[in-house]
Amino acid sequence: MFNLHHKSALVTGAGSGIGAAIAETFAAAGAKVFVADRDEKGGRAVAEKIGGQFVLLDVTREAECTEAAKLAGQVDILVNNAGIGHVGTLLTTQGEDLDRVYAVNVRGMFNCAKLFVPAMLEKGSGSVINLASIGGVVGVRDRFAYTTTKFAVVGMTKAMALDHSHTKVRFNCICPGRVETPFVQGVLKQYADPEKAHQDMSSTQLQGRMVRPDEVAAAALYLAADESAMVTGSTMMIDGGWSAGK
Hints:
Blueprint: E1 8-12, H1 17-28, E2 32-37, H2 40-50, E3 53-56, H3 62-72, E4 77-80, H4 95-123, E5 126-131, H5 144-163, E6 169-176, H6 182-188, H7 194-203, H8 213-224, E7 235-238
Parallel strand pairs: 1-2, 1-4, 2-3, 4-5, 5-6, 6-7
């Protein structure tokens, strides 16, 4: 098992779902974890559960990102996990919808990386893990704004990896397929036939089920650990084979 002993990590959007699973996995591997989320109740609950420290953070607010960086100090691992979605095509998506999704999914990652990466570069080591999506590699129907921003995340990750390839700071992204999070479970309840909707979402993955949050967290643990020292600029697919035939 990979270990993160003597390492510190800040995980955004860690109050639930994938972020919470990553925070828990990192803590179990020995890391000091800063649980960052704008959801104070959820974030504090995760921090208490894992013995981590809660950081109130809305990644779209530069001032809050600055305060989070001051509180956490120099971290070894930054997980840019905070993200939102939007259902709609080009024609049904409004400009403000695209701006809102972009502010979290792209600008939010930029805000955090801009503040935490300089200290990593100065130290000469670090791992930045950006959560993209299957929607950052292949098109997803009715997800115009979401897909646009997740393609940007993949590009941003590769650009950072190239720009800093001469250092020991690594930049990678994880592209999950559909993940069965509390958010997705809530969405399913809105369908007339939740069971059928669940089956439809699961069927997009060749293995016939949705991804579990802990499976994404396991990939993040590898990318955060020293054993992945030669991995940078990568796009790790955790999609049950969804992208295999694309």
